[in-house]
Amino acid sequence: MTDNRHSHAAPQNLESLIDRIQRDFPGMSAQFQVGARYLMDFPGEVPIASMRKIAAQAGVQPATLVRLAQSLGYDGWNALRAVFTQPLRRLPKRYAEQARQVIRSKNPREVLSVAVATQAGNMRLLEELNHDRLAPAVSLLSKARHVHVAGFRASFGPAFTLHYLYRLFRSSVSMLRGDAGSLEMELRSIRKDEIVVIVGFAPYSNESLRVVQAARQAGAHVIALCDSIVAPIALDADCVLVFPTESPSFFPSSSAAVALIEILLEQLLAKAGKQAVKDIKIAEDQLHQTGAYLNTK
Question: Which of 241, 240, 230, 233 is nearest to 216 (CA)?
Fold first, then answer.
C-alpha cells in the first residue's frame, strides 16, 4: 500500500473518478480508504463544505484528503473538489431534447418505474444536501420583520406554495409576482433587514436575479431555494437550500422543491410555537365560514 501520487492522469469527471477509486480502493492505506469512502458516500458535501469539515466528518486529518487527492493524480484538494462541482455547473438539457427521448420510450410500466425511482432519489438527496443548511434558514426567517417570496415561470408554483402555506400562520409574508410588468414597483417595497426568499432552477429567469440584486441594494437578506450552490441566485445569498430536479420527463422536476418547502414550513411552525397554531385555526375557520371549502357533511 502506498500514499504516493500515482503516475496516471487525474480523472476529469465524477464518473471516471468513481471508477478510479473503486479500482484503487483495495490498495489504498486505511486512512485513504476512510476518506475515499466518505467522498463516495456523500458527494453532495464536497462542493458545499470546507476541506476541514469534510475531514472531521470523515474522521481523518485534512492532510489525508490532500494526499488522497495527490495519489489520484491531482495537484491538491481543490483540483479534486472541482470534479465534484462540475455536475452542479452543467447546462440544463433543452426541453425539446428531453421530449424526444420521452417519445422514444415504448413501455409505460418501465417509464413509471424509472420516474418513481428518480423521484425517490431526489427525495433522498434532500437531507444530504441540506443537513447543515436548514437550521440557519429557519433562524433567519423566524427573526425577520417581513418576508418576501418570489419565483418565476416554472418556479412560481413552489414559490406560491411557500407563500400560501406560510401565510396561514404568519401575516407578514408577501409575494413578489411582477404581474403586468409591475416587478420594479414591487421591488421598491423591500426594506433593510427584511428577507427575500427566491426559488429557482435552471434555466434561471432574469427576473429572479433582478429580485436578488434589488434585495441586496435594499439591505435585505436573501435565502435562495435552488438546484445548485453555484446557481446565479445562490452566489450572493445569505442561506442556500438545495433541491435536485432530476427527471426522466422532458421538464426538470419540482417535486423535491415542494418537499423542501414543506419541510422548511414544518420547522418554521415548530419554531413559532402555540401562537402559530392559533393563527392556523383562525385562518382555517375563516375559510370554512366564507364558503371557500365545500361542505362535505
Answer: 233
Q: How far apart are the first and last CA of the chain?
A: 73
Neighbouring residues of 27: CB distance < 8 A, sequence distance ≥ 6: 1, 2
Please name every residue paired with 151 in a beta bridge, in sequence order, or none if there are none: 199
Mean pLDDT value across residues 232-260? 90
- Of the candidates 233, 48, 200, the one whose C-alpha atom is nearest the C-alpha of residue 134 is 48
Report pLDDT digits (tens) over 132-177: 899 999 999 999 999 999 999 999 999 999 999 999 999 999 999 9
Task: Pinpoint the alpha helices (H) of the chain.
Answer: 14-24, 30-41, 51-58, 62-71, 77-89, 95-104, 108-130, 134-143, 156-167, 183-187, 206-218, 255-272, 274-289
78-124 pLDDT, tens per residue?
Answer: 999 888 876 555 445 555 655 565 555 556 666 677 778 888 888 98
- Looking at the DSSP bridge assignments, the partners of residue 241 are 225
Element (DSSP H or E) covering residue 150: strand 147-151
Q: Is there a domain that residue 204 lies in?
A: yes
pLDDT (tens digit per residue) in 186-237:
999 999 999 999 999 988 999 999 999 999 999 999 999 998 876 889 888 9
CATH of the domain at 28: 1.10.10.10
Burial class (CB in 10 A: 0-12, 13-18, 19+), 171: exposed
Amino acid letter for position 43: P
Which residues constitute the domain of residue 280?
124-289
Count of domains in the chain? 2
Longest dimension (CA), the chain: 75
Instruction: Looking at the structure, tell me whether residues 235 and 136 fall in a common domain.
Output: yes
The string of pLDDT tens digits covering residues 15-27 is 788 888 888 888 9
Same domain, 85 and 128: no
Backbone φ/ψ region at 273: left (φ over 0), alpha (ψ -120 to 50), beta: left
pTM, entire model: 0.68
